[in-house]
Amino acid sequence: MTSHSQYRPTSQARTTGFPKYLDNVRTKKGPFTDPAVELGPPAIEQMEKMKILVIGAGGLGCELLKNLALSGFKDIHVIDMDTIDISNLNRQFLFRKSDVGKSKAEVAARFVEKRVRGVKITPHNSRIQDFPDDFYRSFQIVVSGLDSIEARRWINAKLIDLLDEDNPQSLIPLIDGGTEGFKGQSRVILPTITSCIECQLDMHAPRAAVPLCTLASIPRQPEHCIEWAHIIAWEREKPYPNLDKDDPNHITWLYQRALERGQEFGIGGITYQLTQGVVKNIIPAIASTNAIIAASCCNEALKIATNTASFLGAGEANYMMYSGNDSIYTYTFLHEQKPDCPVCGQQTKELTDVDANWTLREFLEWLGVHPAAQLKNASVRAEGKTLYMRAPKMLEEQTRGNLDLMLGHGLAVLSNGSAGGGDGKKVDADGDHDGAAAVRIAGLGLESGTEIAVTDEAFPGQQFQFILRFK
Ligand SMILES: [Zn+2]
Predict the structure, then answer these.
(1) pLDDT (tens digit, 9 = 90+) per residue, 373-396?
(2) CB within 5 A of ion ligand 1: which residues?
(3) Which residues does 462 contact at the CB level (< 8 Å), separation at least 6?
(4) Which of 95, 294, 309, 400 could cysteine-pair with 63, CB 3.0–4.6 Å?
(5) What is the pLDDT of residues 264-300, one digit of tens each?
(6) Domains assigned to the chain
(7) Residue 213 bears catalytic tag
(8) Looking at 196, 213, 225, 297, which residue is catalytic?
(9) By three-state DSSP, how is residue 24 classified?
């Protein structure tokens, strides 16, 4: 490992360079400054009093903390529940080998405090869900550098929930950065004013699989060859009884098959590492993408804090996307708010194509994968009545029976298999099968147009409203 000293800024840069140039930006109007805005020392004082929260001290978080501190924010908090792993060290540059096993938030905070004079960073080695509302209310800006969609949805809904329309101070902008390999985005969410995470949840839907026919007949990319080896060749040849994705012998076998397949179709770029990545569904974390996205997020924070220029979300655009896949490409656009967003919208979202003959269990499974809902552990109420609650245990036991009931009015079924419309193979609610008498599959009696309220363990304290539309 190289010595740290070569990365240390010179003493001149420390004492003069950085504050002077920073103050130029913060006190002098530029071509993008709103003419009505007054810049000057009061703006700096105000910024220095601001409390800013960073969520995540990983790849993006390290960059964010360093950038925000160097941009003149003085009171920064950081939340991260993770500890440092050796595999983080190639890009999470605030950590050293001796830090492995320690809290990311704590090590990152101490490192930046040591290197940037006058900044106070308060680390929290906890889950974001563990803080009371007053904790979040105490910040003027929240910046998230998360890799989990669940955590993003949670903080998004929390900040929207905290908005009190009679109190402008309660509006806390959320600057959200995200990266995936060579791609990334940064965006500013002004609760209920701009589109939120939930408004375009479908953009975060699990990626569609490559059709099997493409894998079997016309592979075009190295990934297709690897998936072919993974899905088709492995099943056909069964070189080992079970595929162990952590066993290098198994990955080597897949890699060699994929390589042969690639040669056959003239497709290059198949490596052992790519094979491992595709099979284990790993998207590589890339330091330069993190640096670019964090810089953009910090830039937005600085603009919001100082008014030196119009920030994303205030004007025509609220979303910046970046791609480094084929050369460097970036653009900003307006992502529109959805009036029926279950979190920030005024209208209740309609769930169309619901089948009245689904059991409640089938409906909940569908809700888990529906691109606009993605609620995997849902509890549900309708018209003031609890249909299913996962917790507490007693309520779960009381409502469990409803899981096997149909959403609509149920069906009359003949036990010889002919049904009064629809699926006759289902066991009726009473378990009564004998004789030729007609039996009924009981239903919950919901109508098309019924409004349901869904809660999910992953989003404590939040309620999603939907209207059911039967097909
Ligand atoms: Zn929304």
Answers:
(1) 899 999 999 988 899 999 899 999
(2) 196, 198-199, 341, 343-344
(3) 154, 157, 158, 161, 343, 455, 456
(4) 294
(5) 999 999 999 999 988 887 777 899 999 999 999 999 9
(6) 4-205+285-333 (3.40.50.720), 212-279 (1.10.10.520), 349-408+443-470 (3.10.290.20)
(7) yes
(8) 213
(9) helix
